[in-house]
Specification:
The complex is a heterodimer.
Chain A (H helix, E strand, L loop, with lengths): L2 H5 L5 H29 L12 H32 L7 H23 L13 H23 L8 H20 L13 H35 L6 H15 L14 H13 L1 H14 L4 H6 L1 H23 L2 H7 L3 H31 L6 H34 L4 H38 L7
Chain B lengths: L4 H27 L13 H12 L54 H9 L1 H4 L13 H13 L2 H23 L2 H10 L3 H4 L9 H14 L1 H4 L30 H10 L15 H16 L18
The chains are: A mainly alpha, B mainly alpha.
The complex binds protoporphyrin IX containing FE (HEM).
Chain lengths: 456, 311
Amino acid sequence: MSNAMATSPEKHLTARGFCITSACWMAVATFMGLLGAIELVAPDLTENLGWIVFGRVRPIHVNLVLFGFVTPGLLSAAYYFVPKLLRTRLYSEKLGLVTVITWNLALVAGVATLAAGLSQGREYAELIWPIDMAIVIAFGLIFFNLIMTVKQRNEPLLYVSVWYVLAAALLTGVTFALGNVVWQPDSGALVGIPDAILLWFYGHNIFGLLLTPLSAAVAYYVIPRACRAPLYSHTLSLLGFWSLIVIYTHVGTHHLLQVPVPTWLKVVAIVDSIAMVIPVMAFLINIWYTARGKLGEVHADVGAKFVFTGTIMYFFVSIQGSMMALPQVQRVTHFNNWVVAHAHIGVLGFAGMIALGGLYYVLPRMTGKPLYSRFLADLQYWLVLIGISGFAIVLTIVGLIQGNAWLNGETVYRVLPEIHIYYITRASLGVMIFCGALIGLFNIAKTLLAPSGENA
Amino acid sequence: MNMTPKAVVIGSLMVLTAVVLSVIVLPYADTSKTTASDIYRPRSADEAAGRKIYIANGCVYCHSQSIRSIDWGLGAERIAQAGDYIQDRPILLGSERSGPDLSQEGGEHPDDWHRGHFTNPRYTRPLSIMPAFAFLGDAAIRVLTNYVQSLGFKNADRRMARQRRWKKSAVTAYEAGPEANVKWLADHVPEGWRSVPNPYPTSAAGLARGHKIYQDFCLGCHGPVGDGMGPAQPHLYPPPLNFTILKGRGISGGILYYQIMNGITGTAMPYFKRELESEKIWDVGDYVAVYFINQSDANGKPRGIDAAYEP
Ligand code: HEM
């Protein structure tokens, strides 16, 4: 790739790079999820294949979904729209490409190390120190590139999407380093209860300070444009942004309500989990009122359709989340598949849908040529939507069976046959989502590689 | 409010700093001073190495190490305390229970049970969905077992001492031949139980239920025909009992019930009182008696008042 190309603003090379990154890793990530689901149905299918034993497949799946599929998908859109919103070009496409490459190397290394059993054993913070550092550096590069883009802007006002992207890159860089305890390269952990508190502070901020703000940024960009309507309210944008950063960061301990951590910290987590209604509704009201009476326009653009669906999922996952932070509710829901349902509604239904929407919205605009196939994008939409809705239903049922049986004194082993059939259904739904990922990869690759792009 | 780049960057960093101070640093001042709980002891080098294998293979995604006041299952005799975790780097609380909690697993079973179970969990637990860990190799499985047997610290050590003590006499009895072994087994059933026959009559429905329970809970050890040759057999010593040797040796329904309910500490035979309700234990006991021992005292004397459901 020549320098001239790399610096040509029309090419949006960084955005393209993250776009194909996201599409490829979505296929791998959902495959790993499907593999894990199958192992829960037929555990001896992969007997003696140590590197894909369930306990290694699961962190590979989760890390790839978060850092391989969703984050790069959202970043791809951000790398396109941040310069657009600032009426300038990206500060450095070269630096952007270095970021894309660093990011992908980190992912490949992450898969290889986890499969080899090199794990730090902390959920969402499994990756070993060198990979952690690569990711911290990547977030640093992202922030630097964007803030320099802001510096050279021709548009004096920063639109709300820009606030969210800047804050997400900066704050995640910091919390990622903190949460992975990078000053302890060997273990990447603290000791005892403080380790749990820090881990879940960080773990929840992956959703609260990375996925949610980036998704909000994409929605704030796509929906008003697709509707050709001004954003409903600047005040709500402000309220949503600041309350998100203040409140979301406090709630990590709601993962530890049944653990001996200080009671006052649990109270803070519970109260703020309820208070999460403020940033959630500020954002949603703003988006939904912007789109009021314009759903036809939203529907007409497949990207906007994905994004809008994601905002509805955000409503459900957040209301559910606030409920789940109540200790009385958690007596039933904690430790079982109810939480897995919630995690999928959040990460795939909300952030994943918006990531796909962002990709489909910016892809024709950054390549200057139409999407290869609207039909395939719609097909993917339905496969993912049916898959995730099915997940939500099936896994919630499983969670209720497990939670209530346990409360009633039944052992884990006794409940296994009761949930078997649901695990089969879940794996079948996983096939749909995996097919959706393959179709998306095909569609996106075809669009990117279409020859007309050369003279766009 | 004018959202300049400075306002966004400095403002959000300030908020984050304040939050870190209040929800991380402030509790740390308190939680970092946690002292050891009553059961706490340091881990041996071998146990620490086993913990590494536990981490490398993602056991934490299926097993919690944190017992709550609302739990009934394994280890629920003791609720987790902060002082249990003071050497855990990282702490392995877990967030999902695809399998049971393990924080008090030490001494629940003897080592040979774990060897069979890790080789392939379906050997000892036919319906398990836990992955097989034979690929780790025998040496690693031994180290992993040592770690698992240390979970619960001093409580685990006491349970392990009990396992070892009874293992010795179970092995001695087994090696002395079937006659002595059956006698040893029966002698350790409390007197009252030995003279109790199975109070419920044998019925087709009862045998069908017993068959189902046998398949789901016992088959991997005692084998499909009750001769003790299930897939777990090569890993267990003393091996699973061959039920056919019990014929004519005065095994009452009460003995079967008691052994299934309470298990035989020191041998791989687990207790089932948490998993099987009373009726299920009588049913599987009678199934064993009828099909494998070929001799059942069901509904024999002394008899009480027949239960209301009996036809
Ligand atoms: C108001 C917003 C939300 C609240 C109050 C909330 C609350 C919670 C709670 C209480 C748990 C712990 C459940 C348990 O362990 O018993 C949880 C888990 C989880 N949440 Fe949320 N949630 C919210 C939104 C979201 C969103 C938007 C996402 C994704 C983008 C998300 C992703 C997850 C995931 C992945 C887990 C599983 C963590 C694990 O591995 O245990 N949540 N949430």
